[in-house]
Amino acid sequence: MEARWSIRQLLLQAFGVLCSLDKTVISIMLTSVLPSELARDMLSNPRNIPKLNYSSLLLTMVFSMGEPMPVTSQDYLGQDFLRFVLDNIEAPPDTDLDEQIPDLFLNLLISFNLQFDEETLNPLLVALDERQSAKAFSEKILLLLNREEDPIRIFDHEPAPPHSLLKLFKDLFSRRSTSQLFYTNDSKVLIDIIVRNIADLSPGDQRRHDYLELCRRVLRNTNYHEHRHRSEDILKCFTRIFCEESALSKRDQYLLKEIFAEFPQYFK
């Protein structure tokens, strides 16, 4: 890619505009050398805020549709890169005077995570497994989820990818090691969000199903048995869904049967 920053900056801006035009453009960029080149440039310029800003934003766009990147890109977008991004979320460079890097890098990771389904080895979860703490990361994604926003839904291209934050939370709570990155109070806040959304969302809404699945994973992979936060409210929500007569509720009701069978101690 062009080495002169004045020209490179214009190229990155143009690539961003092209991504907004058609999903095919994103697919072409994803399978090109562009993601690897952007990651390499970020690693080579860890204190250059304009480069980090533009490169991370374009990478977020390229990953935003959830298409898997080619294997050849994993050399530059592997564990070293993910550690670099996570480190800068927790402790951004002192040159980041406007404090933009943590949020831009967070969106990059949320977008990056979209491409991995539950049957594949997720390198982001591997990178998080290695960390003793990810306080800024966990607090920021919890705040975003509480706002009920999807920060990665940048474009209106179809088919739309899964809700990026709900997918990330389901992935994080799919294993005990990454769920432990959240303090008990954070888990309680997450349960509050889950209860609110299960109560508010309608039958047939994919998000309600996702929140129910997330609830199951919180019950399974956290210390929920120690505090049983909002257990009565959770039971009320579950009971209401069981009483729904719409055919749209059948999928959620089947999931609830599985939850009751797995955790009878919480729903007597």
From TrEMBL:
Full protein name: SPIN90/Ldb17 leucine-rich domain-containing protein
GO biological process, one term: endocytosis
Pfam family, one: SPIN90_LRD
InterPro entries: SPIN90/Ldb17, SPIN90/Ldb17_LRD
Residues of the SPIN90/Ldb17 leucine-rich domain: 98-234
UniProt GO molecular function: Arp2/3 complex binding
Annotated source species: Dendroctonus ponderosae (Mountain pine beetle)
